[in-house]
Amino acid sequence: MTQEFTVYPAIDVLGGRVVRLREGRRDEVTVEGGDPVAAVERFVGEGAEWLHLVDLDGAFDGVPDLDLLRRVADACRSVQVGGGYRTPELVAEALDAGAARVLVGTAALSPSFLRDVVERFGDAVAVAVDARDGAVAVEGWTAVGALTPRELADRCAAAGVARLVVTATRRDGTLDGPDVSLFDDVLGAGLPVIAAGGVSTLDDLRALRELGCEGAVAGSALWLGRFALSEAVSLQG
Fold this sequence. Notes:
alpha/beta
């Protein structure tokens, strides 16, 4: 099935610098990308409609860097941000700082939190479903919870969540190709899905589009020159 599809260049920031981590491990930096704002300006210049900003310090420590978000949002109108947004108040602050969409992960395991943010923020919130070894990863991917990705997706659908950003954490930063079976399973919950983890080629993006994903995050493949953003943008529509 072909549908509207958006490619999200990944801007993962650790210690004020763009990085790529292998499987989200803080000590396995595979790419050093320099200044985040310069990276944003580069991707916008190459045709990016959205950016996927991950505040890794916020994800690990639970304290998002709102100044980072403001600087990135000044350079791009449509920023999807995640990393440490674990209270409704922080979600509100992120939206005030210029985010177009805020990703909530660990906190989404609380049904009351989910109900609250959906009621207050509607489609300005998406749930990050971070999958590791058949379970949902939490706390900056340093632990796993009791739910499976599909169970969390079903819970999100029941709560009225607008969309999911689903990451195959074992593939993130590896260029090993997307975990199609994971995304296919989660799509069964009936919500729009943005897929992340393992994208290496334009064919990977085509496969995710044909699977029915609403979009895909491209990180290491862009940073390492596997394809140009302009080529990926040509797949949108």
